[in-house]
UniProtKB/TrEMBL annotation:
It comes from Nostocoides australiense Ben110. Belongs to the aldo/keto reductase family. This is 2,5-diketo-D-gluconic acid reductase B. The active site is at Y47 (proton donor). Keywords: NADP, Oxidoreductase. Residues 14-257 form the NADP-dependent oxidoreductase domain. The record marks K72 as: Lowers pKa of active site Tyr.
Length: 275
């Protein structure tokens, strides 16, 4: 199943997250993920595994055209020329002629050049080096600024999202602008969302695992989760969320795990630096 993007392209409804896989582990895990059926593969310059992702793709028997490979420009490369060079570097490490999705990894407040990086992505898309352009970890005010500077709305914003942190306000803004939400740490594993009663109850009611219930919650909310797993069986399990539908009550109960204190466990885009 695919999610349509504002510029006419489409991406799979579920992708494979590759952080923090490295070296042979990364080649093995991406390889088994491809065998399991993942076609959207998420990497970043700063994950230091682009070569391994490229290697796993080349070793597979799947046609290049079937893959949606996405990578991200780090903060140290936000100046226009450096952003262009950064994407060229990603292409060379991945062994690809075109990046399917190019994202800005974080806004990086101390650098304050993300609008320049965005201008570079707009031009790279025009020149055919990047097919779909977007951002990651952007607040609404960051989105407003790049749209202001270029008139171009990103197709994707990849952010922390899971049942503890459902991103209500940001997703409403995405809906208004026509931006697809991708979810990193979709399982909220760091805070044990699996063990929560609404997740366990929904999973038991449909005869699925807690992870499948959470991933189905994402799909029904329209966000594209990027679960990471090194385990082939869990990789398959995480794609197998199409045999059941959560009820409105189950969706609401899982969303009800959102905490008033804002249980983000990653960085806040207004302060976090990803150089
Ligand atoms: P593993 O690689 O051993 O499968 P998130 O994507 O929310 O950051 O969570 C990633 C973590 O969740 C990884 O530690 C991964 O471990 C674990 N994980 C991924 N899929 C599942 C699953 N279906 N059931 C249990 N744990 C999972």
């Amino acid at each position: 199943m695919n999610t349509a993007l504002r510029d006419g392209a489409a991406i799979p409804e579920i992708g494979f997250g590759t952080s923090p896989l490295k070296g042979e582990d990364a080649i093995r895990a991406v390889g088994s993920a491809i065998e399991a059926g993942y076609r959207l593969i998420d990497t970043a310059v700063n994950y230091e595994n682009e070569s391994e992702v490229g290697e796993a793709i080349r070793r597979s028997e799947v046609e290049r055209a079937e893959f949606v490979v996405q990578s991200k420009i780090p903060g140290r490369d936000h100046a226009y020329d450096r952003a262009v060079a950064s994407v060229r570097g990603s292409l060379s490490r991945l062994g690809l002629d075109q990046l399917d999705v190019g994202l800005i990894h974080w806004p990086n407040p101390s650098v304050d050049l993300y609008a320049d990086a965005w201008r570079a992505l707009v031009d790279l898309q025009r020149d055919g080096l990047v097919r779909v352009i977007g951002v990651s970890n952007f607040h609404p005010h960051h989105l407003a600024r790049i749209v202001d500077v270029t008139g171009v709305v990103p197709a994707i914003n990849q952010v922390e999202m899971h049942p503890y942190f459902p991103q209500f306000a940001l997703r409403a803004e995405h809906e208004r602008l026509g931006i697809i939400t991708e979810a990193w740490s979709p399982l909220g594993k760091g805070m044990n969302a699996y063990g929560e009663a609404p997740v366990r109850d929904a999973a038991a009611a449909h005869g699925v695992s807690p992870a499948q219930a959470i991933l189905r919650w994402h799909v029904q909310l329209g966000s594209v989760p990027l679960p990471k797993s090194e385990n082939p069986q869990r990789q398959r399990e995480n794609l197998d969320v199409y045999g059941f539908t959560l009820t409105d009550d189950e969706l609401a109960a899982i969303t009800g795990l959102a905490r008033a204190d804002g249980r983000r466990f990653g960085g806040d885009p207004d302060t976090h630096e990803e150089m």
